[in-house]
Amino acid sequence: MKAQTWAGIAVGAMMGVALGTSAYTFLYARGYSYLTEDPRACINCHIMREQYDSWLHSSHHAVATCNDCHTPSGWVAKYWTKAQNGFWHSYYFTLGTYPDPIRITERNRRVTEAACRKCHADIVHGIEGPGGAADPAQRASCLHCHRDVGHLH
Fold this sequence. Notes:
By secondary structure, the protein is an all-alpha fold. It has helices at 3-28, 49-56, 66-70, 75-95, 106-119, 121-128, 142-145. It has one domain: Orthogonal Bundle (Multiheme cytochrome fold). The longest helix is centred in the first third of the chain and has 26 residues, at 3-28.
């Protein structure tokens, strides 16, 4: 056989192993559940059990799911955020390097802050006034005072 043929076989085999491993991991970790709106998907990973249990007992349990607070609106933005978070959650969990206690990233803090402001626009308007703070850095943070609303800490 020619060297090109062997190289093609080697590349094909590596791609097959990578795809097979990815598919197995996706099925084993129930990755398909993250495509749903079901909050129980968040406890596929045991380290999220405390957050899920505290949400069950929170004031938001009856009106909001994980996705309502932790993903932006819009199909593309929502699933892009879910894909990013899923990748990094898997990465840190697999390596055992996730922080304990779990901490929200700055990007996800902005997503959650925007969700608070969207659902509670009337209250925010009453606090900040009609114009509000143009610069997001100058705005009061919902999460600063209300960090226990969705999850007890």
